[in-house]
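Hey,

The postdoc asked me to send both predictions to you directly instead of through the lab channel. I've kept everything plain text so nothing gets mangled by the mail client. Protein one:
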Amino acid sequence: MSINLRGVGVALVTPFTAGGEVDYPALTSLIHHITTGGVDYMVVLGTTGEPATLTAEEKYNVVRHCVAHNPGGLPIVVGIGGNNTAEVIRTMQTFDLSGVSAILSVTPYYNKPSQAGLKAHFRAVLEAAPLPVILYNVPGRTGVNMTAETTLELAHAFPGRAVAVKEASGNLSQAAYILRDRPEGFFLLSGEDNLALATVAMGGDGVISVSANVFPDTFCCMIHAALAGNMQDAATLNLQLHEVTDLLFAEGNPVGAKAALAIKLIIDNQLRLPLVPASEELKNKIRAQIDRYGF
């Protein structure tokens, strides 16, 4: 199975009710919002979806809901990762992935493996994976950086299985080495919204975005313009989005994104502990940026 990851993927938030349950009607509204906004695919149960606080049953139900309520027929990527290699493999092989196009799998966190450990982990995962895999490097959350050398070794060793990397190291030099030496058909995706335009300008293929939950039309216009070579329009939109994107992450993710979505009346501003809703100060700053640019 092949998947085209060029463009904008949205790291979907998981809406909750005031009682703490998954809010499926709000999830339907959110999917409609991003679909009409022009996103190219959705990523479910990524970090932004708070999967660490979802039960196994809730994860199953969220994915099945997204598959069933997908009016644009967007490709769906599901996050399946962890720091127990055997458990990641078991989950991949037992989870209902019908209607899903690819798996996003994060580098193991907390136990901080070496590069040799990362290679061994992902070799085992890629050999067992029932779908193409997007490698996910996010050292700010996991405590370990997957180097360009490690990413490239896996990409070349598993063509058609390791299909992309979501590079959220914030290191454009590292991204450049991946771009220079990647095999044909391997996508490099920004995992940092405010570096997405720079990544595309270097030759990258797009982004898996948090901001696209909230501002899909503007964010997609920016990335699609850049991919088409219209850097002037893309740069203008990037500067408009820059401050509000920083604000979305000021108190953690998806704290800012959920606050902004609530301001836009798309979902309620509910999170699960240990995350708490954004401060009034942050909400006011986000609202001011939305009003300033008409987002």
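Protein two:
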Amino acid sequence: MENMNFGFISVLPPIIAIALALLTKEVYSSLFIGILIGGAFYAGGSFTVFFNHVLQDGMVAQLSDSWNVGILIFLCILGIMVCLLNKAGGSAAFGHWAKKHIKTKTGAQLATIILGMLIFIDDYFNCLTVGSVMKPVTDKFGVSKEKLAYLIDSTAAPICIIAPISSWAAAVVGFVSAGENGIALFCKAIPYNFYALFTIIMMIMLSVFNLDFGPMKKFEDAVARVTNEEDDAEKAAIGKGKVIDLIFPIITLIIMCVAGMIYTGGFFASGEDKTGFIDAFANSDASVGLVIGSMGALILTLIFYLFRRVLSIKDCMSCVPEGVKAMVPAILILTLAWTLKAMTDSLGCAEYVAGIVSNSAGNLMSFLPAIIFLIACALAFATGTSWGTFGILIPICLTVFADSGDALRIISISACMAGAVCGDHCSPISDTTIMASAGAQCDHVNHVATQLPYAITVAGISFITYILAGFVHNAFICLTFGFVLMLMIFLIKTKRYNK
């Protein structure tokens, strides 16, 4: 597939798809229409080129890509794991335990945030694990599915992008030139990753003050408290599971996924091929590592349940098709989103955006972090990928700021990462956004619509803070300024809420 440069036209297919999804509340047809428009632009009136480009170069190529196949297998295994947890009664047991120890709606939301922050290894793993564990708890305290999806999404990519030991850190390090210490560069950028840090603060403040605004308030007000009725996990359970039947599989999954990732990075190799723990993460193949880890965890969970006799072998095997079936909507949306990304790539979207960034340097050096943040937001929003945005913009930032001791260099790389996460956070075609909806069992379009006001608020604060950072080069001053700005917005929102 030959990539061309169509200029501004290259960003139209994803923009049209996103607009249609928000207007029609129907994501499948919206994505498919975006794919068709992208194929039509590329074909230039040739039906044969159009047909081959959409199906062969687009959908078939994406579904045969080894990375994408690994992610789909990982999703299916996690779906089976979630089904096992529910059927064994582990989720229901945890719900009973949480009901005794978590007394308020605020406590349920803070517990979700804490769990999401603890699972920092990978955003995909975070989305589905936190959703399956915390949904029974949040249901009991009247937290809407939309709010749960927001909390899941906000503790996925924003946490992974500030965790040095994560698949995201590995991805960022992979885009840094070989002559530099990528992990050291990543760690220096963490204090300036304003969007991720302010998103965490936003979640905590929303939960503590029990304040919601925009479309989210409508869904939160509409949720009836569930006190006497059994939750979904209890209805699905056939085994008499205990809390250990939830904790053991989750801990096993975390340990095995970490082991799988460092295995692909060469940590367990012998001789000269052996690498250290940090380097193994930096060189890991997240797709393969997560498949290896999740498969190992699934086998150990099956053995554990059979040994404890909470499920029979027949019950365990029935979870395989049920779990995969539960992941079908997420898999379908992911497939369409990947195909749409292939269309934008073939139209030269990446090159078009890269040219805008390169032309922004010069007299606007102090404003460049804020400009990079906006461009990264737009690119990630239009393409639905943070990692692709890293791959485009980080090498450009390193080229523009060649001096490794330049403070603007660190700030600009942070702005690139923060903007990519922001755009990914807002985009309906982002795989993380899709899986957050799946983890919370929430309608995808509702999740996007309710999350946008919060994400845009944090994005606005981050943009202003990056303007300041371009001049003062001090993370503490910038974070303090941004926090005060957020506090002022909350005071205004609180007054309106009380009225």
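Summary for protein two, as requested: The longest helix spans residues 313-346.

Thanks,
C.
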